[in-house]
Amino acid sequence: AAVLAAALLAGCTPVAQNGDTVSLPAVVPAPVSIEAGPDAPFRLSSATAVTGEADAAAALSAIVEARTALTLASGDGAGIELRIDARSDAPESYRIAVDEASVTVTGADAAGLFYGVQTLGQLIARDGDEWTVSPVTIEDAPRFAYRGVMLDVARHFHPVETVKAYIDHAASLKFNALHLHLTDDQGWRVHLDSRPELTEKASGTSVGGDPGGFYTKDDYREIVEYADSRHMIVVPEIDMPGHTHAVGLAYPELAEDPSVSDHMREVIRDYGGDEPRAGAPYDGMAVGFSSLKIHDEATYDFVADIFGELAAMTPGPYLHFGGDESLSTTDEDFAEFVGRASEIISDLGKTPVAWHEAGAAVGIADTTVGQYWGFLTPQEGAAEKATAFVDNGAQLILSPADAIYLDMKYPNGPELGLTWANGPTSVERAYSWEPSDVLPGVDDSGILGVEAPLWTETIRTAADIDTMAFPRAAAAAEAAWSPATGASDLRTWASFRQRVGALGPLWTSMGIGFHPSDEIPWV
Ligand code: TNX
Asked: Which residue's CA is the closest to the ligand 1 atom numbered 13?
């Protein structure tokens, strides 16, 4: 018990290895394999040299400096070698070997090496006055190709610096996609030369009367480049045909008047705010009252302009056209819109992405990726709609709302957040689900990946984002990256909470203002 306690204090996690219980350093998301070596730890000092790939060396030096205040030397000398070995197997995979004399990180590609460096950052431990790296061998590769976080910059606008910080924090957990929810009823957040009035007339406010804002094209490019330097793609979402009240402020001829149902009136009563009115900015939290005009060719000229310009600004393969909660559009009209919007995106040479409701549309482009936002136990036809994407030969991104919606309140947490998705959502619930168990008949071959959305009706600042996302984003990262539940000793809640707890000092040194959840034994 004493050994165990000491191991846990040092940020290690006990696991069975060759029949013995040994202590291993805490890595999140859990790697494919990690074995303790027989050597003494590698000691880090200002004499430690890092050699090899320059970008990876810069990334490692930044982590080491933040964590230990040591500045690594460059050039020859005993130390850390970072290299790419293109002959080694899976994309984004890496190996780490640590002994007393050296640390070697080998990536199959630049992304794999970057992920190896993130893992190495987690292996650094304090030993008295010294900093050491535990002697281990790690082999690691992602389970899913797509590992995303989503940030809603429409309900509350978040400036470029905040987005960059979120990219850094998410990339440390091996996320490789940043989905930006750029437009909604409350605001249009990206300037497009083809339709300049969107940001001129529809970006000024956020939920609750808070200030708005938008990204210039240079801002957007800056985000894309920064994300790329952390091996993340940007997936821009322009939500349509619902969630489009802001479009009507700029181009009234494209939008139907708001259609407010009795249910929306109840929501408005619960959350406060005014009812939506044509021509006035909307700063409440109700959804489902807006729609683009479906039977007007001008709408499709608009869709073509918007996505054409975004396609040229976005190197990643995906353009997301929303498709959620179009509650004031008839099913027939919705299907027609989804078919045409998905074809427009596909004709631009991009892969369309849509929320799962769009799967019901018969004419949807076959290549469209679906994003499932239902519950872990699907309700009311959600599974059928989601499964339709797989039947078309495409894949799904899983964002089960009652597990990894990062905007749900925590139990015993801050006031921030909503509760509609069976909330509050504990860290344990965010963790304890298995992707291949969510949708009947959808196994790994039908799953492109996992994404944790952060809607921002109640989320105003960078500190709010960190609080809601950490530690629960780590649970989503493990679902996206690590072996399936049951395929690894590390894939248990008991192991995860210990490993996450050990990351507290690293996260603090990186400036991640995580929620100190009482479910986690923080070191
Ligand atoms: C549902 S999930 C929405 C968003 C809200 C969110 C709040 C989805 C595709 N749509 O419009 O912001 O709930 O949790």
From this structure: 455
Per DSSP, the three-state class of 445 is helix
- Pairwise CA distance, residues 319 & 353, whole Å: 6
| Domain boundaries along the sequence of the chain | 33-140, 146-489
Q: Give the residue from 438, 432, 435, 430 showing the smallest Cα distance to 450.
A: 435
- Measured over the CA atoms of residue 361, residue 365, residue 367 and residue 368, the dihedral's sign is negative
Catalytic residues: 325
Q: What is the layout of strands, in order, in the sheet containing 42-44? A: 42-44, 130-133, 124-127
> Rounded to an integer, what distance in angstroms lies between the CA atom of residue 25 and that of residue 161?
32
Closest atom of ligand 1 to CA, residue 401: 2
DSSP assignment string, 151-214: EE-SSS---HHHHHHHHHHHHTTT--EEEEE-EETTEE-B--TTSTHHHHHH-SB-GGG-B---
The dihedrals phi and psi of 130, each to the nearest 5 degrees, come to -110, 165
The pick from 207, 240, 287 for probing ligand 1's pocket by mutation, whose C-beta has the most ligand atoms within 8 angstroms, reads: 287
The per-residue pLDDT for range 472-512, each reduced to its tens digit, is: 999 999 999 999 999 999 999 999 999 999 999 999 999 99
The verdict on domain 33-140 having CATH code 3.40.50.150 is no
Distance CA 69, CA 62 (A): 9
> Other C-beta atoms within 10 Å of 274: how many?
11
Residues with CB under 6 A from ligand 1: 287, 324-325, 355, 373, 405, 407, 418, 455, 457
Neighbouring-strand partners of residue 12? 25
- Residue 457 Cα to ligand 1 middle (Å): 9
What's the CATH fold of domain 146-489? TIM Barrel (3.20.20)
ipTM: 0.96
Which residue minimizes the CA distance to atom 8 of ligand 1? 324
Q: pLDDT digits over 137-151, tens only?
A: 999 999 999 999 999
What's the CA-to-centroid distance between 308 and ligand 1, angstroms? Answer: 26
Nearest ligand 1 atom to the CA of 152 is 12
SS3 18: coil
Cα separation, 419 vs 402, whole angstroms: 9
Q: What is the DSSP letter of 112?
A: H
